[in-house]
Design a protein that fits this description.
Layout lengths: L2 H25 L7 H10 L2 H5 L2 E9 L5 E9 L3 H5 L6 E5 L3 E7 L5 H6 E5 L4 E6 L7 E7 L2 H7 L2 H9 L1 E3 L2 H11 L8
Parallel strand pairs: 1-4
Antiparallel strand pairs: 1-2, 3-4, 5-6, 5-8, 6-7
Amino acid sequence: MTEKKKWMVYATWGAALATGVLVGIVLVGKDGNDSGLARLVNLAGKADVVAGPSYELVLARHYLCGVRDEEHVSVHTNQLADVMGNYNGWEIVQAEPVKMILMKREQDIAPACKENGHIGIAADGMLALFHGLPAEQDVVQTFYRIDTARMEASLPKEEWENLKRGIRIRNLAEYNSVLSTYGEYQWSGQ
């Protein structure tokens, strides 16, 4: 991480921590009980005023199959430090005064790929991962061009037809197995 990014992260954390401490002081009375909270609720009459300002966490997951999904979590600034403990191993991609983007590279295929993924041949001759059957042409990820002439000559007709229809992928092991099996038919351009 560059020095500028580190400084920005520290400044953001410092601001969030200071806000959390300030909110904690306001919410807890001078005598150490929640009398400050009770007074604030009575005055405002709204629970969301008590909660204080919120901070947005964007959790971006990148899967091996090329899928990226995001989850947005709203966290009250006075709880940010506690919540961040849940995201050990996540990389801070961007930090702003009211929002932080965290990224995690998952060593698996996405749930959507497990649910309805098929590897097959795209119309342009590329080995590809599809959401659904290859006939629907909903490409999720492309790998490499296949030497279809060599493949048709080498493989049993049934195996070639299965690949054209699409081979169902349910987990990372199947994904890797299919890529490994057909890697030898990668077109070399000669």
